[in-house]
Amino acid sequence: MKTDRPPCQSILVYVGLDLVGDGLMKLPFLRALRRAYPTASITWLAGKGKTVYASKLAPLVTGLLDEVIEDADIGSRWRQLFARPLKGRSFDLIIDTQRRVLTTLILRRIAHKVFVSGAANYLFSDRQPFIKREKKPAAMIRQMLDLVEAASGASADSSGALDLAMDARDAALADLPEPGKGAGYIALAPGAGGEHKRWPLENFITLAKLMAEKGHIPVFFLGPDEADWRPALGAALPQALFPLQDNKVYGIAPDFTIAVAERCHAGVAGDCGIGHMLAAADIPLISLFGPTPPEKFSPCTRRLTILKAQDYEAGRGGEEMAMIPVEAVEKALETALSEA
């Protein structure tokens, strides 16, 4: 669906703040917004704190954002209702990604032509999503994509590759050259922010061995908290690769991590930041969930398979990650590889 609307040359996107996990989850929104407005100047405004788009994740938003403002101190004080935030600046379009009514009313004081906000079920928004929903979507990224659709009048398209630096992609190619015929690199991300979200490490080892027996090459993506797993994994899987630990130039840099993921033919991850990086690489992804709801936290990518602990009889409806069988993950991975 497409609605004819006036050209938009300047866009302001408001957030409270962005931690690393927030920034990774919002990348599909940025891709969709840039695709909807390819020539517009897009400003990202963090009104109540820092944003990783100005620091750690800055390389990932090259070409997606034109300006990043953080610690703006906008959106919290009642007296700002009687002021003109960002005085002297105006925008064709403002997208308010949060839902606190006071903040929304303050943002409407910024000079603009069109204002889009989901606060109070779009009560203060100049435009509404063209797909009417009975209730707010559980997934944060779906809520944000609805804002793009409301603004543009078209379906949000978040597909496509990130504009990574060529040297990061060159380094990834050097570390993961073309594999032999019939072989593929398999991205494995065993870490997560908490033990309760981790599929057992021994299951990852078993899965990696099964894939290696079929000629594939396991590629482990270990974050700083899992770096000490490297010796045990290397001993169990001599053919495995550990690019984030072995590349002394880039290490765990987000742009290099995604560039390496792009070299993989499919991936497996739990509910974790690296899982969202694998999704950003646009590879087939098997996403494992237990105590956290995939409806809210699953990565946004077009080739996604979700396996939940609660779906397996052995789990008796439980949420322990160990209840997801290795055989189920292997089968899903083989299917993803065949369809890739």
Number of domains: 2
Strand content: 15-25%
* CATH top-level class of the largest domain: Alpha Beta
Radius of gyration: 21 Å
* Average pLDDT score: 93
CATH topology of the largest domain: Rossmann fold
Question: Which percent bin holds the helix content?
Answer: 25-40%
Tell me the CATH architecture of the largest domain: 3-Layer(aba) Sandwich
N-to-C SSE string, H for helix and E for strand: EHHEEEHEHHEHEHHHEHEHEH
Strand order of the largest sheet: 3-2-1-4-5
Shape: elongated
In the CATH hierarchy, what is the superfamily of the largest domain? Answer: Glycogen Phosphorylase B
What does this structure look like?
By secondary structure, this protein is an alpha/beta fold. The chain has 2 domains: 10-152, Glycogen Phosphorylase B (Rossmann fold, 3-Layer(aba) Sandwich); 166-339, 3-Layer(aba) Sandwich (Rossmann fold). It is 31% helix and 15% strand. The chain contains 12 helices and 10 strands. It has helices spanning 20-25, 27-36, 101-107, 140-152, 166-175, 201-213, 230-236, 243-246, 254-262, 273-280, 294-297, 326-339; strands spanning 10-15, 41-46, 67-69, 90-96, 111-117, 185-189, 217-220, 266-269, 285-289, 304-308. The strands form 2 sheets. A 5-stranded parallel sheet has the order 3-2-1-4-5. Strands 7-6-8-9-10 form a 5-stranded parallel sheet, with helices on both faces. α6 (201-213) links the parallel β6 (185-189) and β7. The protein starts with 9 loop residues before the first strand and ends with a helix. The mean pLDDT is 93.
